[in-house]
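dude i think i finally got it to work??
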Amino acid sequence: MGNRLSGKVAVVTGGTSGIGEATVELFVTEGARVVFTGRNGDKGEKLAEKFGASTRFVQGDVRNEEDIQRAIDTATDEWDRLDCLFNNAGGGMGGTLETVTKEQFHDAMDLLVGSVLFGIKHAVPIMKEQGSGAIINNASVAALSTNYGGFLYSAAKAAVRQLTKVAGIELAPWGITVNSIAPGGIATPIFFGGSERAADMDDAHIAASMAKLEKNLAAATPLQRTGHPEDIAYGALYLASDEGKFVTCHDLVIDAGMTAAGKTNFEGKPPATSW
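look at this
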């Protein structure tokens, strides 16, 4: 067990699968106490039992501001502080420019941008009173270039990236850092249509799909490596720890060189879902 987050309290949204789950596990290993959220109550409770007494699970949907506030309130009620907020929850967004509906637009903005904005809103008063805090927002390489995601997803993640910089400047006088992470092709349930759809797949189907996915994702990077949730979790760990205290308004790109090389995916075509 490490101690890079010893004594710190964190909230991680979307913590029941993929990047969020890996981050919760790593943060606990490094000494943090963590509140994590997710829509899947059964899985969340099982993970809280697995991770132990240093975690609390709050079932909820980050599209609802009240659920975000409840998670942050749980952290302060249980441990009387909040040192890190990782606005991680998200998902892929479909639709085309010619068929997009108002409902799809609002769903994308609520899930990918609103969840970040309202997470910051409810974390800030606590962090201001402390005179410290680290806010981390999950952005995407889709915010940096075209062909890394659908237009709704890309636009929303670009908004997250800019929101991060604006918030970082506004909150700097209180010692609060605000940064984003831009994951590249990370092998997570987002490529299966989300964790709920993956939960309906049998183990053999998931294993076969994951093997194909990892091969294709590796081919899209100069390093010829597949990204895994823990690769992003380690980036979040750095930004949440005292080691990242001099970093703010920064977008940490973790993509094995994919955007620098200008690659889209293994076939040179837009990916079927969002990165």
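The two ends are 31 Å apart (CA to CA).
im so relieved honestly
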